[in-house]
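Appendix B, Record 12. Input sequence as logged:
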Amino acid sequence: MSNHSEQAAVGQDNLTGTIDLIEESGSGETLSVGDILSGVKGRGFGPLLLLPALITLLPTGGIPGVPIVAAILIVLIAGQLLAGASRPWIPQRLARANVSRQRFTKLLDKSRPVTRRIDRAIKPRYGFMTGDTGNRVIAVIAIVLALSLIPLGPIPFAAAIPSGIMVLLALGLVARDGLLIILGLILSAIAGGWLVIRFI
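Logged structural output:
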């Protein structure tokens, strides 16, 4: 088993483990949405929200079209979480969307030093934030943030702020870290307030 595989097996609930899962998904010269999601199949909604948010936040978010596909995926998954679905589903047409594996994984690898430092601070805490109510609150905010990615998508790396907040929320859900969820909610409120002041 490769080092990446070992890390993924023990670190699925952190950022570096998520990158490992993405890189080892599927095979061939391209990497599809379906390939990526198959790596977290059966692990609930948290990883499925974290994957597209993380991909948009990292340098891979600069690939044309990635933020928009990620936004559609997040809205779809968060909508199912909000509706109380027992397991997530995505349409085949979205699952077939793909990018160059070599280019994608090269950009992911550049982020490993940062994700490893972040992972050291992640741990289960403030469990009251990770129950059913917390999940639905996260789902609503994720939908709003994902919709903001669509107009920001054509602007290089402009999607970093909403996707960064989504990473905090989704990672908090995956790692059962209520502190990350609280921080994500605070940043969501600040971002929302700024938009109101800026455009209204």
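Residues 1-11 have pLDDT under 50 and may be disordered.
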